[in-house]
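REVIEWER CHECKLIST
Item 1: Sequence provided? yes
Item 2: Single chain? yes
Item 3: Sequence as submitted:
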Amino acid sequence: MFAGLLAVLPVALTLIIILWLFKYFSKPGVKLVEFIFRNHHIYKYLPPIMGFIFTLLFIYLLGVIIRKTLGRQLLNIVDNLFAKIPIINIIFTTIKQITASVANPNSKSFQKVVIVEYPRKNIWTIMMVTGESVNSQGVEFYHVFVPTTPNPTSGFMLFVRKTDVIETDISIENGLKMVISGGLLSSPLNYIEIEQPKTKPGKDNTDE
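Item 4: Structure as written out by the authors:
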């Protein structure tokens, strides 16, 4: 039973998510279809299907408009509006940064993934580098965003010395997957190197 459940669960959850997305994106277009065919008898599955198609078409046309100069200007106006509203600007900016990084792994929103010994010794946290700076003594720092699990749109920002950081070659996309999944979607080999205690001459460290 357990083996069968593990086999079926991923398929079932995938279908549930797809069905939810279909219903969610079809809702805006359903009313339009019902209005167009208000005086006609239509197949009950036609409004959701046509509504889904209309919604996708609307999103596609919106993307075409945004790629134009006027569309980008209107989008900048909306971005600036949200950026000036207290509290909302934090949520909006963070979500936009994360979605931009997921959509484009080469985006400069997040530069790379690092691991830092935080919040205390022998506990390690995955962080996203967002910038760099130096202090008056010439010490180099990373600006890092610490996303929370399972919602990476919340978190906090830290200044961390470069010498205290473990560099990784984890992509931004995979780093976010690790955070969102709570570590389920991660490599079995991590980048954490722990210095082993040195044994004293003549001492046997085996348990008595």
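Item 5: Key structural point noted by reviewer: The chain has a mean pLDDT of 77.
Item 6: Recommendation: ____
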